[in-house]
Sequence to fold (281 residues):
Amino acid sequence: MTEDQSRKDSDADNQKSWLSKLANIFTDEPQNRDDLLHILQEAYNNHLLDADALNMMKGALKVSELQVRQVMVPRAQMVVIPLTSSIEDVLPIIVESGHSRFPVVGEDKDELEGILLAKDVLKSFVKTEKDFNLRDFIRPAVVIPESKQVNILLNEFRTSRNHMAIIIDEYGGVAGLVTIEDILEEIVGEIDDEYDDREDPYIMHVSEQLYRINALTTITEFNERFNFGFDDAEFDTIGGLVASEAGRLPETGELIEVADLNFKVIKADKRRIEFVEVDLS
Fold:
């Protein structure tokens, strides 16, 4: 037997051995989520899956365990349009935010009137800007509890062709919103982005007295960790508190002073603050 033939036989034996192991695993069936993740990781290690496919599968599994409160845009970071807005008020909001859908609210943000689609307003504006009445463009809002499972909502989005849902808390108040894009980002979002690693702690010690804070960190958790006294009566999260203090959605790199602390926004998009840094020295 030649050396080349021997090498080919060895490779074939190794492949058969791996396929046999994989077949045995699937024959026994995974008993829990960890077993399934182990199978997927082994498939990646043996070049049966690439990194993108592996991460998307992990994302799909993660989504099946999430509730909408964990992926929503908090109320303080929502871009809303008051019901009394004129066309002159509405157009800058549409242009500056870059969004395509907006909750329409009454005098109180908890008075949800419906959803406004930017394309409906723009079509009307092309025809005429006279006699503009926002009520004529409002569509019914999909309202869901914050405990709803994300995978169930994704399926409802697909079947109903809705792209946004308003989330209410246990008292019936508006807690935030979630879009189909928010859910899909949990599955196919930025891979290997250091700030998107949901396994990181919500409060991470960077150096000395510098801390990186996930914007979804609750005010209660922040107060307990640093023996601080932020009021959580109006807002639940640090991101909501910072956005409220700024009076708008701040951009990446901005410094926002809250009480005696300076919060630096280190990651934000057009919908929400994601991470801030705070120096406690």
Notes: The domain at 194-279 is CATH 3.30.465.10 (Uridine Diphospho-n-acetylenolpyruvylglucosamine Reductase; domain 3). Confidence is low (pLDDT under 50) at residues 191-199. Residues 3-28 form the longest helix (26 residues). The two ends are 73 Å apart (CA to CA).
